[in-house]
Amino acid sequence: METDLDDQTMSRDLTNASEPQVAEFEPGILDTYIAYHLRLAQNASFRAFQRKTGQHDLKPGWFAVLSLIGDNPGITPMALSRGSGRDKSTLTPVLRDMLTGGYVERIASATDRRSYGLTLTEAGKCRLAEFSARAAEHDARLDAIVGEQKAELIALLRRIAAEIE
Amino acid sequence: METDLDDQTMSRDLTNASEPQVAEFEPGILDTYIAYHLRLAQNASFRAFQRKTGQHDLKPGWFAVLSLIGDNPGITPMALSRGSGRDKSTLTPVLRDMLTGGYVERIASATDRRSYGLTLTEAGKCRLAEFSARAAEHDARLDAIVGEQKAELIALLRRIAAEIE
DNA sequence: GGCAACCGGTTTGTTATCAAACTATACTGT
DNA sequence: ACAGTATAGTTTGATAACAAACCGGTTGCC
């Protein structure tokens, strides 16, 4: 199916390739856009992670939340929202599920009756440990891919997240 | 609201900050994960782009598709799917809208009756030009943030997209 | 030539997400 | 102290995406 109508327009030279076929289109200007590559990379990474963890009923959004709560006992939903980079309203159902699943507990704030703090239960810590194993495994693959430029990459990504307005 | 219940657990030292408040939680292990930073950065970038373009009724998914079609007249939906990093089924409604909007045209493949090629109409080229202006503007901000490490960053992101399985 | 496996594109169902509207509470300035 | 504004969390509605099931059509193998 690969190249039907594009013999003039495409610069591919591997018609006979036994390989799964790679160069079937011209990225064009898109190829110079950071945003484009950012999306492709994030998407590929996210899917890979989901495939690995999904079959163990570990929802992808959970790891960041559990981890943040674990490292910040008493953290509020708002801080969690900023820390995980998701909208506060996105977190509501996640936290509800964690609450009803018995993985986290709410502690009413003494100073602000609108708010509450979150802590992990024992079950939650256990859950987080399960996740951590999977997540570490996944991120190890990323580490292998980026090699010793990891620090640099993270610094760049952090700058992007912080400075784009 | 910031730090109600965590005075022991958090290492913040700017209770009086007049700034919009930044260090309100401890990233913890998460901070060492490439996947985490990738998601934050992509998300921030995507939102920023959407805010810029959304108000001009330019849907975010459209740019990559229009651009790829523009650079590859006759490209098939499958190639487009791989090129834009989205599932083929995601593309179906996008292409339908572009078709009915008169921005692209289908040309039945001469060799495979299941498939068809896509080309931009004049309206589509015009649309793409509009987008390009906005997209270039957005990506210029990203360029400014990453500076001269752009090539490096893109190389890393490309490797991630290609090699994560 | 015919059957089985594969592949391109569409349909359908589910999910993650944001944004805006809403409620209740807290803060600020006069 | 009170009025107006800002903030925390929830609800509701819209959207973009994937995945699996599906329908031709194609290809390869016997």
Q: How does this model look, in words?
A:
Two copies of one chain form a homodimer. Chain A has 165 residues and is mainly α. Chain A contains six helices and two strands. Chain A has a domain at 60-163: Arc Repressor Mutant, subunit A. Chain A has helices at residues 34-54, 62-71, 77-84, 88-100, 122-146, 150-163; strands at 104-108, 116-120. The first copy, chain A, has a two-stranded antiparallel sheet with strand order 1-2. In chain A, a hairpin with a 7-residue loop joins β1 (104-108) and β2 (116-120). In chain A, α1 (34-54) crosses α5 (122-146) and α2 crosses α5 (122-146). The first copy, chain A, starts with 33 loop residues before the first helix and ends with a helix. Chain A binds a DNA duplex (30 and 30 nucleotides) through residues 1, 43, 47, 50, 59-61, 76-78, 86-94, 109, 111-116.
- Morphology call of chain A: globular
Unreliable stretches of chain A (pLDDT < 50, length at least 5) are 1-22
Strand order in the largest sheet of chain A: 1-2
Q: Quickly count the helices of chain A.
A: 6
CATH topology-level fold name of the domain at 60-163 in chain A: Arc Repressor Mutant, subunit A
Strand content of chain A: 5-15%
CATH class of the domain at 60-163 in chain A: Mainly Alpha
Mean pLDDT of chain A: 83
Distance between the termini of chain A: 43 Å
